[in-house]
């Protein structure tokens, strides 16, 4: 028969949980449950190897032959004397006291007895539990790049339409247009003088 002890390690009492900011309490009053699994006999090399490679996920799919429970003492130890050899699933539940933070141990599979020194079996087994790691929520990424400036609008200026009731301003005259107006005015003036001279001649001849 195998004497198995599960020990909950002591945590610094000044250490606090990063999520709840509660202080750690003692290692007592942890409930330890051990399930002896229905596996191939471990008294063969192949059977022991298969049991030793058994994961927690696959162990939970197997049938349970026997189940044992115990509570840790002030030193964090839960004792299970007189166990049958085989593969065992170990599950630890922390106390339900909400005033303190009790870290939860990881579930594990152990094959008892264990191999000892000088190729002898160890029937007095002490296992130190490991706690589940903290999983903190990820910090969202804050963008640091400045957004690009919007492109400048592209448009061609257009002449404003005159307001209703207002006359449009006259367009600027070019040099050719001004010269044409001057020549036209000269022709009109010259024609006027010619008509005036002819009229005077007719008037003189009539006397």
From TrEMBL:
GO terms under biological process: carbohydrate metabolic process
Residue ranges of the TM segments: 171-198
InterPro entries the UniProt entry points to: Ig-like_fold (IPR013783)
Superkingdom, natural source: Bacteria
Sequence segments annotated as region (Disordered): 139-166
Keywords: Membrane, Transmembrane, Transmembrane helix
Protein name stated in the entry: Surface-anchored fimbrial subunit
Species: Corynebacterium silvaticum
Taxonomic lineage of the native organism: Bacteria, Bacillati, Actinomycetota, Actinomycetes, Mycobacteriales
């Amino acid at each position: 028969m195998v004497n198995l002890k599960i020990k909950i390690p002591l945590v610094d009492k000044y250490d606090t949980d990063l999520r709840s900011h509660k202080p750690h309490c003692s290692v007592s009053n942890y409930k330890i449950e051990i399930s002896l699994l229905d596996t191939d006999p471990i008294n063969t090399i192949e059977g022991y190897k298969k049991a030793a490679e058994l994961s927690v996920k696959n162990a939970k799919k197997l049938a349970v032959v026997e189940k044992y429970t115990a509570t840790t003492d002030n030193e964090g130890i839960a004792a299970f004397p007189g166990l049958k050899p085989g593969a065992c699933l170990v599950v630890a539940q922390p106390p339900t006291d909400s005033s303190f933070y009790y870290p939860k141990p990881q579930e594990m599979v152990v094959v008892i007895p264990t191999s000892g020194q000088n190729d002898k079996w160890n029937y007095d087994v002490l296992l130190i539990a490991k706690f589940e790691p903290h999983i903190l929520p990820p910090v969202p990424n804050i963008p640091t790049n400045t957004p690009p400036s919007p492109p400048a609008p592209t448009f061609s200026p257009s002449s404003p339409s005159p307001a209703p009731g207002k006359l449009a301003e006259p367009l600027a005259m070019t040099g050719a247009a001004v010269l044409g107006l001057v020549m036209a005015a000269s022709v009109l003036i010259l024609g006027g003088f010619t008509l005036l001279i002819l009229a005077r001649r007719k008037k003189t001849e009539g006397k």
